Amino acid sequence: MARATLDPETRLLYGESLQAPPGYRFEAGVATTFSMDFETALAVPVSLALFAAENRHDLLSHPIALLEGAERIAGRLAVFVDAGQIHAGAGLGNRLCSLLERTIVEVEAPQGGSFHPKLWALRFHPLHGDGPTFMRLLVLSRNLTRDRSWDAVVRLDGVRTGSPKAGNRPLHDLVAALPDIAVGDVDAERRALVVAVAEDLRHTKWDMPDGCEEVAFAVNGVGRHHWKPEWCRKIGIVSPFCDAAALDYLAEHADEAPVLISRPDQLACIADATLDKFGRVAVLDEQAETEDGEELRAGEQQGLHAKIYVQEQGWRTRLTLGSGNATGAALLGARGRTTANVEVFATFTGLRSKLGGIDDILGDTGFGRLTRAFESGEVEKPDPADAAAERALLEARRALARSGLRLRCEKVEDVGDPRWRLLLIPPEGGLSLERLGRVRVWPITLGEGHYREALDAIRAGSPLTLGDVALIDLTRFLAIEITEAETARAETFSTGLLLDGLPAERDGAILRWVIGSRETFLRYLRLLLAELGDPFGAVRIVQDGADGGGWRAGSDDQPLLEDLVRAHCSGDGRLDAIERLVRRLEASGASGEKGVPDDFLALWRVFRTALETADAR
């Protein structure tokens, strides 16, 4: 397992890991991440409910797939992210971001650090019959972002059993605690979902990877089952971020000089007295940071991001992967630190001859072949002023995302097209935000061109009008650009605020906007009629007519009636989905070219009448 998992030639696609196994469908899931961006998060429902694509751009080019993916997983997936760590780039807005409002929950670490675990817990049910409930667990170093960094992932499949497994208790405790550390209220439906998935995890028997005899889970910052290194002959550490306190602590647990692989900018900050304790100190070779000819898109990160700990104990190896860096905040929370991150780890134990040792995993035949020796002084230490500005911006992010900012919308009367006034409501007494020189805000659906200066209003605790917007542009996600006063360093992020007065018909407006034409309606209809568990059929449907940014005609001349009859015979709920679509479009006032085509509506009514007559007999 070690050689296969950590060999640079072995890749695991994110979307593929989320897709249901053959013969199963996605039923429920919980995910945790430190940070996320909207584009990557929008692609998740498509991977879970419809199909997996090789890259995010393929998914985002199909708006009906994004809409239907969000519809199918609504109420069945909760994604928990550190409050203040949702990425929001400047530029044009994206109305589809509002589809994530029922999925994303912002949280904060109980002990004041970062909420940093990267985990997916997914439940799949059989498409037919009474087969076992299938569970999948991902423990990653990768956030829900578009980064191109080197990351590591543990993927475990298993079956839910009737009895709890003691070794799964740390996973259960982490997931079960999530609603209680949310910065806002968590509704009863989502809380019940989280509790159910936590119980699923507790009762799952996992299949062991090749070469592994057992797996142990640990969570720092929540519960009592913390990860700490055991005494060993030698330890190897891969950690993009590190500090002297954690490195000294890890080195103390090994008889021989450890191995350390990190990033040059981090190692430049570590005193020689600490680095001298390590037998080999290396960094990722620059030529290995990206694929040949691969260009980074705006906002994408590259380089080392995996977190790996390898310990040799006699003839055995302990291989730990997860979210925790070799920093005090990640590893030393149980040793009296005032602040501590929430982290998750999975540790595999097996014979060194089967699992591999440090030289196999991190040496020249493994991940180590992508590294080079670190040279002291090769990069300058970060400017203290920049480091101070970074801390100030982080504190401001947390204050804005966790302080109770709200949004309120009010319908604007006596205007031609219906408009809603969107107001930002700061907490009573305001926020000081002492280190900031500027705050700009705008709805994520509209883009930077609609920004408002907000620092004075937030400090004073005064409502701020963000403008009069169309119904489809109402959203609880606000983009916020903050600028540190002394260095003028700026960062942009997003946060989801409580939105008072949101009209119930907003979601219908998004539906009308995505469908937009007869051709797109019929393609969406085909997607609803696609057989569950047939990702290839879903791909064909959404790609039929997708050429660049437009749609080609061609799907409306297929035998719809035959598809409707097959869906009725299957009894799997596809007809109910079509009924909901028709009712929502009619309720939203859509008709003609932007609603339900008249010929299909007539066919649908005749078909439903025939079914009702047959049932009555």
Q: What is the straight-line distance between the termini?
A: 59 Å
Unreliable stretches covering 5 or more consecutive residues = 1-5, 52-56, 545-557
Structural class: alpha+beta
Helix content: 25-40%
Average per-residue pLDDT, rounded, comes to 85
Overall radius of gyration = 26 Å
Number of helices: 21
Secondary structure tally: strands: 28
Strand percentage lies at 25-35%
The biggest sheet amounts to:
9 strands, mixed
- Label the overall shape: globular
Name a few traits of the molecule.
31% helix; alpha+beta; 9-stranded mixed beta sheet; 617 residues; 25% strand; single chain; 21 helices
Give an overview in words:
The chain is of the alpha+beta class. Helix content is 31%, strand content 25%. The chain contains 21 helices and 28 strands. The strands form 5 sheets. Strands 6, 11, 12, 13, 14, 15, 16, 17 and 18 form a 9-stranded mixed β-sheet that branches. It has a 7-stranded mixed β-sheet with strand order 5-3-1-7-8-9-10, covered by helices on one side. Strands 2-4-25-24-21-22 form a 6-stranded mixed β-sheet. A hairpin with a 6-residue loop joins β19 (406-412) and β20. α3 packs across α5 and α17 packs antiparallel against α18. The longest helix has 19 residues, at 384-402. The N and C termini lie far apart (59 Å). The relative contact order is 0.12. The model is unreliable at 1-5, 52-56 and 545-557 (pLDDT under 50).
